[in-house]
Amino acid sequence: MHPQLFAISSAQIEKNELPKDINNFKIEIEIREPSGDDIETFYCYVVSPSYLISTEPCWGRGLLILAEFNWFDIEISIKKMLSHCSGNSWEEIKLKIKHFINNA
Q1: What are phi and psi of 5, to 5 degrees?
Q2: Pick from 84, 6, 4, 8: nearest CA to 44
Q3: What is the pLDDT of residue 5?
Q4: Angstrom distances, CA of residue 26 to CA of 1, 29, 49, 63
Q5: Where are the beta strands (DSSP E) in 1-104?
Q6: 101 — phi, psi (to 5°)?
Q7: CA pair distance 88, 77, nearest whole angstrom
Q8: What's 101's DSSP letter?
Q9: pLDDT along the chain (104 residues), means of 10
Q10: Can you give the residue ranges of every domain in the chain?
Protein backbone atom coordinates (compact mmCIF):
# COMPACT_ATOMS: atom_id res chain seq x y z
CA MET A 1 0.00 0.00 0.00
CA HIS A 2 1.32 3.44 -0.95
CA PRO A 3 0.07 6.80 0.34
CA GLN A 4 -1.02 9.51 -2.08
CA LEU A 5 -0.31 13.21 -2.05
CA PHE A 6 -3.66 15.01 -1.73
CA ALA A 7 -2.67 18.68 -1.35
CA ILE A 8 0.17 21.08 -0.56
CA SER A 9 -0.55 24.46 0.97
CA SER A 10 0.94 27.17 3.13
CA ALA A 11 -0.71 29.64 5.46
CA GLN A 12 2.14 32.01 4.54
CA ILE A 13 1.60 32.03 0.77
CA GLU A 14 -0.82 31.15 -2.01
CA LYS A 15 -0.03 28.21 -4.30
CA ASN A 16 2.10 29.27 -7.29
CA GLU A 17 3.19 32.48 -5.55
CA LEU A 18 6.56 33.26 -4.02
CA PRO A 19 6.84 33.31 -0.23
CA LYS A 20 8.05 36.49 1.48
CA ASP A 21 11.14 34.61 2.63
CA ILE A 22 12.04 32.05 -0.04
CA ASN A 23 14.78 30.69 2.22
CA ASN A 24 12.53 29.44 5.03
CA PHE A 25 8.76 28.83 5.06
CA LYS A 26 6.32 26.24 6.36
CA ILE A 27 4.11 24.05 4.16
CA GLU A 28 1.23 21.76 5.08
CA ILE A 29 1.03 18.43 3.26
CA GLU A 30 -2.21 16.47 3.12
CA ILE A 31 -1.60 12.78 2.49
CA ARG A 32 -4.35 10.34 1.62
CA GLU A 33 -4.55 6.82 2.95
CA PRO A 34 -4.10 4.23 0.17
CA SER A 35 -7.76 3.18 0.44
CA GLY A 36 -8.74 6.86 0.07
CA ASP A 37 -10.80 6.97 3.28
CA ASP A 38 -8.56 9.09 5.51
CA ILE A 39 -6.42 12.19 4.98
CA GLU A 40 -3.69 13.13 7.43
CA THR A 41 -2.00 16.53 7.56
CA PHE A 42 1.75 16.76 7.97
CA TYR A 43 4.06 19.75 7.76
CA CYS A 44 7.64 20.64 7.02
CA TYR A 45 9.80 23.68 6.45
CA VAL A 46 11.19 24.37 3.01
CA VAL A 47 14.65 25.86 3.42
CA SER A 48 17.55 26.84 1.19
CA PRO A 49 21.19 25.88 1.70
CA SER A 50 21.98 29.56 2.36
CA TYR A 51 19.42 29.56 5.21
CA LEU A 52 21.10 26.52 6.76
CA ILE A 53 24.52 28.18 6.54
CA SER A 54 23.28 31.37 8.19
CA THR A 55 21.37 29.78 11.08
CA GLU A 56 22.18 28.00 14.30
CA PRO A 57 22.82 24.24 14.09
CA CYS A 58 19.57 22.32 13.56
CA TRP A 59 18.25 18.82 12.91
CA GLY A 60 17.19 17.79 9.43
CA ARG A 61 13.90 15.98 10.08
CA GLY A 62 11.00 18.08 8.93
CA LEU A 63 13.13 20.07 6.49
CA LEU A 64 12.92 19.98 2.71
CA ILE A 65 16.12 21.55 1.37
CA LEU A 66 15.88 23.14 -2.08
CA ALA A 67 18.58 25.03 -3.97
CA GLU A 68 15.92 27.46 -5.19
CA PHE A 69 12.18 27.83 -4.62
CA ASN A 70 9.93 25.97 -7.06
CA TRP A 71 6.46 24.52 -6.35
CA PHE A 72 7.01 21.77 -8.93
CA ASP A 73 10.21 20.60 -7.18
CA ILE A 74 8.40 20.61 -3.84
CA GLU A 75 5.64 18.39 -5.21
CA ILE A 76 8.07 15.99 -6.92
CA SER A 77 10.18 15.74 -3.73
CA ILE A 78 7.12 14.89 -1.62
CA LYS A 79 5.92 12.27 -4.11
CA LYS A 80 9.38 10.70 -4.18
CA MET A 81 9.47 10.58 -0.38
CA LEU A 82 6.00 8.97 -0.30
CA SER A 83 7.13 6.28 -2.74
CA HIS A 84 9.44 5.04 0.05
CA CYS A 85 6.63 4.88 2.63
CA SER A 86 4.65 1.78 1.75
CA GLY A 87 3.22 -0.49 4.40
CA ASN A 88 0.59 -3.07 5.33
CA SER A 89 -1.54 -0.58 7.27
CA TRP A 90 -2.19 3.16 7.38
CA GLU A 91 -0.61 3.30 10.85
CA GLU A 92 2.59 1.66 9.53
CA ILE A 93 2.69 4.06 6.58
CA LYS A 94 2.24 7.12 8.84
CA LEU A 95 5.16 5.98 11.01
CA LYS A 96 7.37 5.82 7.92
CA ILE A 97 6.23 9.27 6.76
CA LYS A 98 7.08 10.67 10.22
CA HIS A 99 10.73 9.73 9.62
CA PHE A 100 10.77 12.56 7.04
CA ILE A 101 8.11 15.09 8.08
CA ASN A 102 6.01 15.97 11.14
CA ASN A 103 2.34 15.63 12.02
CA ALA A 104 0.38 18.86 12.14
Answers
A1: -70, 125
A2: 8
A3: 96
A4: 28, 10, 16, 9
A5: 4-9, 24-32, 39-47, 63-65, 102-103
A6: -130, 170
A7: 23
A8: S
A9: 92 76 89 90 93 83 89 94 95 94 78
A10: 4-103
